[in-house]
Amino acid sequence: MKPIILFSALLFGQLFFTQPQQSESSGEVYVYVCTGSSSKRYHNNTQCRGLQNCKGEIRRVTLSQAKEANRTPCKLCYGN
């Protein structure tokens, strides 16, 4: 029973606390943002619960662009 619980915990961590995507060619790290007026976070995938109530469009941007726009990491995606 313990191996099943351990495997489940590892799988859950991989699904929900993954790293942002990185482009092979340019080396840029990409994240996702909501273009809604009250959006303040960036996310590592489009399936994040934090994007469920997005009132705008979900866009893929570079991590540096998200930071330049004063966005902070999503606590659900990055576990902070």
Overview of the molecule:
The protein has one domain. The chain is built from three helices and five strands, in the order αββββαβα. Strands 1, 2, 3, 4 and 5 form a five-stranded mixed beta sheet that branches. The chain starts with a helix and ends with a helix.
Indicate the topology.
Blueprint: H1 2-16, E1 21-22, E2 29-34, E3 41-43, E4 58-62, H2 63-68, E5 72-73, H3 75-78
Parallel strand pairs: 3-5
Antiparallel strand pairs: 1-2, 2-3, 2-4
Keywords:
globular; single chain; 3 helices; about 80 residues; alpha+beta; disordered N terminus
Question: Which ranges are low-confidence, i.e. pLDDT below 50, for 5 or more consecutive residues?
Answer: 2-17
Q: How big a fraction of the residues is strand?
A: 15-25%
Structural class, judged by helices and strands?
A: alpha+beta
Overall 3D shape: globular
Would you tell me the overall average pLDDT? 79
Oligomer: single chain
User: Helical proportion?
Assistant: 25-40%
